[in-house]
Design a protein that fits this description.
Strand order of the largest sheet: 3-6-2-1-9-11-12-10
Bound molecules: adenosine-5'-diphosphate, magnesium ion
Distance between the termini: 25 Å
Mean pLDDT: 96
Strand content: 15-25%
Helix content: 25-40%
CATH architecture: 3-Layer(aba) Sandwich
Number of domains: 1
Length: 255
């Protein structure tokens, strides 16, 4: 059975310029697009969401990527869990069965690199038709103590571990844009060499690399033979179109 991994950016479901403010109507709209698709299809689905204003301002305040801070790790995790609960409530209210999976409890880093990611429970969830909902989180690191692990870095890891066939990252832009703000239809490791100068970090508070971080992660995945898409989840209907396999946004591919 085919597995879809959908990431929804924090820029889509939170007010990124505020602190801990969710866009409830957007969360509900996306839940409805997911539930309508699920009724139609027997594909398995994993949802990963970004932390947005529930994680980035907190991680900056406690400088989580500069040095270990136990209080900052706790407060940031509590905050992203609050957003995760909102997403879960919305999905379950819309008629899906969804359960939380917190990377803090499933994942271990060493110098920022993922060295362990438990997926046994995620496998059971998807086999039972449940949508596991992961998120950008604070994660323990054997060398650094604790670091921020972005939703963008979780997707390639899960895609390989669970052999996903369709991977998408929904953000607040129509795709990866060129220097004329036109959507780039396809990026490969070869075209990236020229395009890289036009791809930057985030326009808002984002401690995990913005668009450049996203493209870099997904190119690494493409080089392992798994292609993915970056599209605009803030536009009504685009998440649905991605789920149905349409050609939305930018394709990140190995050739
Ligand atoms: N070439 C580019 N194409 C599209 N977006 C870009 C580009 N360069 C920088 N960006 C910025 O990256 C942002 C998306 O990254 P980010 O804010 O981290 O979103 P998300 O919340 O989805 O992770 C866009 O809103 C835009 O401000
Ligand atoms: Mg981001």
């Amino acid at each position: 059975m085919s597995l879809i991994i959908l990431k929804i950016g924090g820029s889509v479901i939170t007010e990124k310029s505020s602190i801990s403010r969710a866009k409830d109507a957007e969360i509900d709209r996306i839940s409805n697009e997911i539930v309508s698709f699920k009724k139609d299809s027997d594909s398995q689905l994993i949802l990963v969401h970004g932390a947005g204003s529930f994680g980035h301002p907190q991680a900056m305040k406690y400088r989580l990527n500069e040095g270990f801070d136990a209080k900052g790790a706790y407060l940031t995790h509590v905050s992203v869990k609050e957003l995760n609960s909102k997403v879960l409530e919305s999905l379950n209210n819309a008629g899906a069965h969804a359960l939380p999976v917190h990377p803090l409890s499933s994942c271990l880093l060493e110098n920022g690199k993922i060295i362990d990611f438990q997926v046994g429970h995620i496998k059971v969830m998807i086999e039972k038709g449940i949508i596991p909902v992961l998120h950008g989180d604070v994660v323990m690191d054997r060398i650094k103590g604790a670091l921020v692990l972005s939703g963008d870095r979780i997707i390639p890891h899960l895609a390989i571990a669970l052999n996903a066939s369709q991977i998408g990252a929904g953000s607040d832009v129509d795709g990866v844009l060129d220097n004329n703000d036109a959507v780039i239809k396809k990026i490969t490791q070869y075209s990236f060499v020229d395009m890289r100068k036009n791809i930057k970090g985030s326009g808002s508070t984002d401690v995990t690399g913005g668009m450049l971080g996203k493209v870099s992660e997904l190119l690494e995945l493409a080089n392992k033979g798994i292609s993915s898409r970056i599209f605009n989840a803030s536009r009504k209907g685009v998440v649905s179109r991605f789920l149905y396999g349409e050609d939305v946004g930018t394709l990140i591919s190995d050739k």
